[in-house]
Design brief:
This is LLM class F420-dependent oxidoreductase. This protein is of the alpha/beta class. Helix content is 47%, strand content 16%.
Length: 304
């Protein structure tokens, strides 16, 4: 089972980047071969992935995910190619459509037409990564620089989208290499995501897409406390309509039921359900970021 783990730097550490590299090196030494970094409002996820991949050779690094807004695809392409060159081919770019409320709070505005913006963003990235040139004039973006856009050693760059809705999955299948659904349970993956994105990719003449299920997880003997932590940590997602649809499709009482919580074998069994449903990969998103809680997840990741 291809597996990875989301790495979250200790924001109380003396040096954010040093801590991230140290965690990544420990995870790699424990047998982990792929880490993912989320973009929030502190570190730059693409830049940090490049630094980690350069420092820990052989470790796959990726972003899960970088929101499209307010980023222009030319800037994202430049960052991604630089990270790919730094990691000697071990970087993967994961992008997402973003969420209106956090964007409004942070930037004072939000961006309409998310699926159209996704399509045009991917069209620009595809042109740069596949051909090394771009001359794009769309409704949402213009990307027609006079200067080179390619970086030696910076391609190819696998591109994944955190897509769960039908329109986003259609665009992702046509233009990206796969999807990174977070909190999409096995039923959602098997009955909806796999057939939708696979058909879109096949119709576009693209290879079968990777479906990388991002699963919140905690290895613990105190299942009750672990489930309480999951409910607290994931409560925000339960307020978002797209995740509410997932809960309904999975026929669950709570979004916390999507978390893999329990001893190591229980967590492994939970993750295998995603592979049985058609996911090509799974990635564990730790519910507890302390080192004592991370070490068992590294072992689970390495043993699958």
């Amino acid at each position: 089972m291809p597996t990875g783990i989301v790495l979250v730097p200790n924001r109380q550490s003396a040096n954010h980047v040093d801590d991230a590299i140290s965690q990544a090196r420990q995870a790699h030494d424990a047998g982990v071969r792929q880490i993912w970094l989320a973009q929030q409002f502190d570190h730059d996820a693409i830049g940090l992935a490049g630094l980690i991949g350069a420092a820990v050779r052989g470790l796959g690094v990726g972003t899960s995910v970088v929101p499209l807004n307010p980023r222009h695809p030319l800037i994202v392409a430049a960052q991604a190619q630089t990270a790919q060159a730094a990691t000697h081919g071990n970087f993967s770019l994961g992008i997402g459509l973003g969420a209106h409320k956090p964007e409004e709070d942070a930037f004072g505005r939000s961006w309409p037409n998310p699926v159209r913006r996704l399509r045009e963003h991917l069209q620009v990235l595809r042109s740069i990564f596949d051909d090394g040139v771009v001359g794009f004039h769309g409704d949402e973006f213009t990307a027609a620089p006079e200067w080179p856009v390619s970086v030696a050693g910076g391609t190819p760059v696998p591109v994944y989208v955190a897509a769960m809705g039908p329109k986003a999955l259609q665009v992702t299948g046509e233009l990206a290499d796969g999807t990174l659904p977070y909190l999409a349970g096995p039923r959602t993956i098997g009955e909806f995501i796999v057939p939708t994105i696979s058909k879109a990719a096949a119709d576009a003449g693209r290879p079968a897409p990777r479906i990388i299920a991002m699963v919140p997880a905690l290895v613990t003997d105190d299942v009750e406390a672990g489930r309480a932590l999951a409910a607290e940590t994931l409560a925000f997602y339960g307020t978002i309509p797209s995740y509410q649809k997932v809960i309904a499709r999975e026929k669950l009482d709570s979004i916390a039921d999507l978390a893999a919580v329990g001893d190591a074998e229980t967590v492994r069994a939970h993750l295998r359900r995603y592979l049985d449903a058609g996911a090509t990969d799974v990635a564990l998103s730790p519910l507890d970021h302390s080192l004592p809680a991370l070490a068992p997840l590294w072992e689970v990741t390495a043993s699958l």
